[in-house]
């Protein structure tokens, strides 16, 4: 990987075992994925790409709300109940799908396929898999 071993806060100094390293790597990958999705969630609406249809039954369309922080704070912000639904949906995903289930054939720390999602990953050779994992890790930093 371009960055190699990256530990700016010294969390792995001293007597650290493989389990501690794997836990920190798991958290790093998960937070990196969240950061990448947050970036897309900020850039796409600013580029004019919105979901089609209405966000509620009163007829407000997705593009009728402002972009960025103004979408959650300000006079034209998404109502509190809408923000609450978004947070509950993220929590649901976190509890049900976005976790590493032991014994389901996961190849590495942060592999959330859990034995049922592939999207062609198994068709890559080992070198390509390592390269793609390094790219994801570095993009999440």
Structural overview:
The protein is built from 3 helices and no strands. Helix content is 43%, strand content 0%. The protein is mostly helical and 141 residues long. The protein has helices at 18-46, 80-96, 126-140. The protein starts with 17 loop residues before the first helix and ends with a helix.
Strand content: under 5%
How many DSSP helices?
3
Topology, number of strands:
0
- What is the element string, with H for helices and E for strands? HHH
Instruction: Please compute the radius of gyration using only Cα atoms.
Output: 19 Å
Low-pLDDT stretches are: none
Summarize model confidence as the mean pLDDT.
86
Shape, principal axes of CA atoms: elongated
Supply the helix-strand structural class.
mainly alpha
The separation of the N and C termini measures: 12 Å
Give a quick account of the main beta sheet: strands, pairing sense, barrel closure: none
Helical content, roughly? 40-55%
List keywords for this structure.
141 residues; mainly alpha
Brief digest:
The protein is mainly α and 141 residues long. The chain has helices spanning 18-46, 80-96, 126-140.
Summarize the SSE layout with pairings.
Layout: H1 18-46, H2 80-96, H3 126-140
Helix pairs in contact: 1-3
